[in-house]
Design a protein that fits this description.
By secondary structure, this protein is α+β, with helices and mostly antiparallel strands. It has a single domain, classed as 4-Layer Sandwich (Deoxyribonuclease I, Chain A), CATH 3.60.10. Helix content is 25%, strand content 28%. The chain has six helices and 20 strands. The strands form five sheets. Strands 1, 2, 3, 4, 14, 15 and 20 form a seven-stranded mixed beta sheet that branches. A seven-stranded mixed beta sheet has the order 5-6-7-8-13-10-9. Helix 2 crosses helix 3. The chain is globular and about 55 Å long.
Length: 336
């Protein structure tokens, strides 16, 4: 009988450790990294601005500095448990993400890369990396609008989670406001409606589908593209399955932002299905807090002429600032 005690003790320890794995909070991040270009000329892309000999005089030293800066930001979100999922926009190719993983504080963590080459004239794409010790990829595809052959696509990724659950992720970079907000508004609405059609097809199969949308929408949480096109709602006391909820609506109403242009705008958002906001589900994914977080450290900022601390980017005008990005990253916490 006494010989059974060590074995029983071992079983208890293993069960405890196994159970703890599902309770580990996982960070899910989105970051517009602002022009993450390498130094190699790609004849199929308009990357001339970021080449040696250009006006910016982009070179290997500046490129590696950018890689390390971005890695430092992502590492600093939680250096004890690096983000499990990171979505990006404004990356030139797969190789720059490989360098980010190898030559920054992210080095050593088992990240896998998902990137579908798009048709943006400048060659900037959306992408996603995830930790293979937390998730595995079931499938991925680019979702494109048939109306604009030279527009950015939406990256759709299906991941299998720690509890054998499926997480549907959508990484976005909607049409910018360059040329005027009103003039470009219809294209962002088109982005929103396209995505909503895909979401509706998922909800038609199961209203309890786990959906997480992230991206630089170039619109605020209360703009028509988000509220009417995508139908992403403010958080309610009792979220419902079959609905989408914006984790950054409250932050926006409180005056917070992720990018500065004359004032703060909150273009970078994370939106989830109601099923992920229902926390009373054992060993199933759920969002710990119904509100998202903005990574906003003092060393990521500098004081502008108005006395406002704003994101420290790589360049301001033609001056090289050794910065990070003109956007701040956003994140949420996924638990099991």
């Amino acid at each position: 009988m006494t010989r059974l005690f060590p074995l029983l003790f071992l079983v208890i320890i293993v069960a405890f450790v196994y159970g703890q794995k599902f309770k580990q909070p996982l960070k899910v991040v989105f970051y517009n990294v602002e022009n993450l270009f390498d130094t190699i000329d790609d004849k199929h892309k308009n990357d001339n601005e970021f080449l040696p000999g250009s006006k910016k005089n982009w070179d290997s030293e500046k490129y590696i500095q950018k890689i390390r800066n971005l890695g430092h930001v992502l590492y600093s979100i939680d250096n004890a448990e690096l983000p499990a999922i990171i979505g990006f926009c404004e990356v030139e190719n797969r190789e720059v993400l490989e360098d980010l993983i190898r030559f920054s504080p992210l080095a050593g963590s088992p990240y896998e890369i998902i990137l579908e080459e798009g048709s943006d004239p400048r060659g900037i794409d959306v992408a996603l990396i995830f930790r293979s010790d937390r998730f595995s990829c079931l499938s991925h595809q680019a979702i494109s609008s048939s109306n604009h052959s030279r527009s950015r696509h939406i990256l759709y990724v299906k991941l299998l989670g720690p509890a054998e659950d499926t997480l549907h992720l959508f990484v976005n970079h909607w049409k910018s406001r360059f040329g005027g907000e009103k003039k470009t508004r219809p294209k962002r609405m088109e982005n929103a409606i396209l995505l909503r059609e895909v979401i509706d097809s998922l909800f038609a199969l199961d209203t309890k589908t786990n959906i997480l949308i992230m991206g630089d929408m170039n619109d605020e949480p209360d703009d028509e593209s988000i509220i009417l096109g995508l139908e992403a709602l403010p958080i309610t006391k009792k979220p419902e399955t079959g609905e989408l909820y914006n984790l950054f609506y409250r932050s926006f109403k409180e005056g917070e932002g992720t990018i500065w242009y004359k004032d703060w705008d909150l273009f970078d958002q994370i939106i989830v299905s109601g099923n992920l906001l229902i926390t009373k589900r054992k060993n199933r994914p759920h969002i710990d807090s119904p509100y998202g977080f903005i990574m906003n450290k003092h060393w990521m900022l500098y004081k502008n002429n108005f006395g406002e601390n704003i994101p420290l980017r790589s360049y301001r005008g033609g001056k090289y600032l050794k910065g990070y990005s003109d956007h701040l990253p956003v994140y949420t916490i996924l638990s099991y």
